[in-house]
Amino acid sequence: MLNRSGISIPVESNMNYVNFASRIDRKKSAATLINKGFSLCAVASITGYSISTITRSLKRLNNTGDIEDLPRNCKVTYSESFKLELIAFYCQTQPFQNSGRWTLRCAEVHLAAHPKKINGTPSKSTIHRILQEHSLKPHQSRYFLHITDPNFFSKMHHLIKLYLNPPKNLFFFDECPGIQILKRIVPDLQTEKMKKRLKEFEYIRNGTINVLSFFSYNNGKVYAKCRADHKTDTFLEIFRNHVEKCSAT
């Protein structure tokens, strides 16, 4: 390969740039070629660097007089004891007294303000990576119901037997109390061209109503009634009427 002065520059056959001895030599050669009038594209082709890298190196050379790269931060390695302390902090403490859970961002900010807690200030990505290494997801949770009935398990076994060997008349009861009875001030609007029905925003409240329903296990039918209350007497009245109808059929 010939430069502008007609000097031959050796190039490897399987590479599109000169085989310089080191990275620093390449950058120094790039600066020399630029000073001799070579274009950025030509220097990039010769040295194998991108135009942005050459521009950045020249800027650093003009500002500091040194073409060397600035020292880079090496990846920090954490000991196993530090990881365990971090896990204990994140999983076993709370940001507020007896409430709340840490988020990665909040934990990062808190540890940066209190580095002595675990003798370190890990970033949120580091916290996330350490939690992932141990398959921990403390931000996820599920509800559970504390058993307070001493006869819970005996009742449970009784219900399971009913499911497995249902009698002729087996009914399940459920209710939906406190349903609001709303009346719109004006009727809904809808035409053939409208894709959605328009509903008036304002409404009048007419109290609440309760829906009591019974599900028949054998035929899958649901018997439901609406009542103003859901007291025991109301429940028994509806249940007796339902049983009488089922017995008649």
What does this structure look like?
The chain is of the alpha+beta class and 249 residues long. The chain has three domains: 23-64; 80-134, no CATH class; 166-248, no CATH class. The chain has helices spanning 23-35, 40-47, 51-64, 80-92, 104-113, 124-133, 152-164, 232-248; strands at residues 171-184, 203-216, 222-227. A three-stranded antiparallel β-sheet has the order 1-2-3. The radius of gyration is 39 Å and the shape is elongated. Residues 1-18 have low confidence and may be disordered.
Entry keywords:
3-stranded antiparallel beta sheet, 249 residues, alpha+beta, elongated
Secondary-structure element string: HHHHHHHEEEH
Strand content: 5-15%
Instruction: Please outline the major beta sheet.
Output: 3 strands, antiparallel
Return residue spans where pLDDT drops below 50 for at least 5 consecutive residues.
Answer: 1-18
The overall number of domains is 3
Strand order of the largest sheet: 1-2-3
- Look at the helices and sheets and give the structural class: alpha+beta
User: What is the general shape?
Assistant: elongated
Task: Please work out how many helical segments DSSP would assign.
Answer: 8
First-to-last CA distance: 102 Å
Short description:
This protein has 249 residues and is of the alpha+beta class.
Write the layout of secondary structure elements.
Blueprint: H1 23-35, H2 40-47, H3 51-64, H4 80-92, H5 104-113, H6 124-133, H7 152-164, E1 171-184, E2 203-216, E3 222-227, H8 232-248
Antiparallel strand pairs: 1-2, 2-3
